[in-house]
Amino acid sequence: MSICSAPEIHEAYEDVRNDKTETNWLLLEFLGSRKDELKVASTGSDGLDGLTKNLKQDSAAFGYIRMVMANDELSQRTKFVLLTWCGPNTPVMRKAKLSVQKADVKTVLRAFSIEVAASDSSELEEESLMLQLKRAGGANYDRQASAY
């Protein structure tokens, strides 16, 4: 049985992917400290800031974020980020299983440009993620991104 079998997970994923809705992120958390099954903990339309406010220091979670990047006002592209969160106070057994469980999550949250692992919210700054997205996007005509 997959850890992502709840139908609401698929619905939340499709909602974030849909450009016609305002929802631009979702957060999956485990049902309990000993259960290896995920649930939709929250969704929102307030971007990366909204998602990071929902991350807990004592748990592991998976996030999915829609981000709009632009090299100029005429070229905007929608990109998706898969986040694996492991708070600094996450129990050892949960940490140990996380990399294997991520494979199940990727079967549902399957379309993303970059994958980010973080254990501190300071690792999730929008400027840094945008730079990673630009680097992953191939051809890049923005001097700032090429300077790194």
UniProtKB/TrEMBL annotation:
CDD domains: ADF_coactosin_like (cd11282). SMART domains: ADF. GO terms for molecular function: actin filament binding. It is found in: Cytoplasm, Cytoskeleton. Pfam families: Cofilin_ADF (PF00241). Keywords: Actin-binding, Cytoplasm, Cytoskeleton. SUPFAM superfamilies: Actin depolymerizing proteins. InterPro entries: ADF-H, ADF-H/Gelsolin-like_dom_sf. Belongs to the actin-binding proteins ADF family. Coactosin subfamily. This is ADF-H domain-containing protein. It comes from Coemansia asiatica.
